[in-house]
Amino acid sequence: MVDIARESREQTDATQRTLLAESYFGLRLAREVARVQQETYNSLQRHYEDVLKLEAAGMIDKAGRLFAQVNMDEAQRALEASQKEVTVVQSALRALLNLEDTCSIELTSALFINSSLPAKEEFLQAMQTENYLITQLQLQSDIARQQLRIDQSRYLPDIALFGKQTLYAHGIQSNLVPRTMIGVGFTWNLFDGLAREKRIRQSKLAQQTLALGQAKAKDDLSVDVDKLYTQLQKAQDNVRALNTTIELSEELVRIRKKSFAEGMATSTEVVDAETMLANVRVARLAAYYEYDVALMNLLALCGVPEHFERFTTDYTD
Predict the structure, then answer these.
(1) Other C-beta atoms lying within 10 Å of the C-beta of residue 47
(2) Which of 33, 109, 206, 257 is least crowded, fewest Cβ atoms below 10 Å from its Cβ?
(3) Which string of DSSP letters, residue by residue, matches 282-298?
(4) Which strand (E) or helix (H) includes residue 183?
C-alpha cells in the first residue's frame, strides 16, 4: 500500500508539472505574440506616415490612404488583444504558483524545438515500465497474487511448536519432573462450508481482472504515445516549413517597401506583405508551443516528466 501511495503522489506531481509547463510556455507564447504584433503595428504605422506624405504630394489617392489607415488600426486592435492575453495567462500562472498579483514573473526558458527526437520505441518502453497507472496496477496484481497464496494456504494445517525449560525445581527429583519439554501441535480444518473455495475464486478473479486492466491500459497508453509523438513530428515539420516561409516573407516585405518608395508598388501590396509576415511568425510560435506542451505531456505519460529539462539542453534546435 505504501508503494501504491507513492506512485499516486508521483502521478499528482507529474500532473502539476504538466500544468506548469502549459502555463509557463503559454505565457512565453503570449509575450512573443505580443512582441510580433507590436513590431507589425510599428511597421504599419511607419507605412501610414509615408502614405500621408505621398497623399499630400498628390502621389496617392484617398482610397490608398484609407486602406493603410484601416490596416494600421486593425494591427493596433490585434496588439491590444495580445497584450490582454498576456495579462490573462500571467494571472493564471500566478494562481498556479500561488503568487501575489503584484509579483512580477521573469521567464528564463524560451520556447524551443528539437531538431531530432529519440525513437518512438524508447517512449513506448518507458511507458510500459514507468507509467504511474501501469505501475499501480502491477502493484495491485502483486497484492492479489499474495492474497491468493494466503487463501490457498488455508487448506494446510496450522502447526504450532512449543517448549518448556525448568530452570529451578527445589526438592523435586529430575527423574520425576523433566527439566525440558518440547512438543508439536496442529489444527486442521477439513471443512468450512466452502468458504475457502469462495475466497480463492474471488482472489483469482481479482488477479485476472487486474491483468486484463493492465493489458488494456498498455494498449490505450500506446495509442496516446503514438498521438503525442506524431504531434511532435508535425510541429517539427511545421517549423521547418515556416522557417523557409518567413525568410521569403521578409524578403517580400523588403522588396515591396522599396518598390513602394520608388512608386512601383501599391500600399495594398506593402500591407499584405506585412500582414502575411506577421501571420507566419505567429504560426511558427504556435508550433513551438504545441511542441513543448506535447513533449511535456508525452514525458508525463511515460512516467519520466523530470527528463523534460534534458530536452531543453541536449536537443534544442
Answers:
(1) 20
(2) 109
(3) HHHHHHHHHHHHHHHHH
(4) strand 180-187
**Rounded CA separation 131/219 (Å):** 12
DSSP-derived secondary structure letter, 114: B
d(CA 292, CA 22): 8
Query: Could you report the per-residue pLDDT of 89-117, keeping only the tens digit for each?
Result: 999 999 998 888 888 889 988 999 999 99
Rounded Cα distance between 145 and 211, Å, is 11
- List CB contacts of 8: < 8 A, sequence separation 6 or more: 132, 136
**pLDDT, mean of residues 274-295:** 97
Amino acid in the structure at residue 25: F
DSSP state for residue 265 in the 8-state scheme: S
pLDDT of residue 191: 53
Q: How many CB atoms lie within 10 A of CB 13?
A: 14
Alpha-carbon dihedral sign for residues 58, 62, 63, 64 = positive
Cα 73 from Cα 82, distance rounded (Å): 14
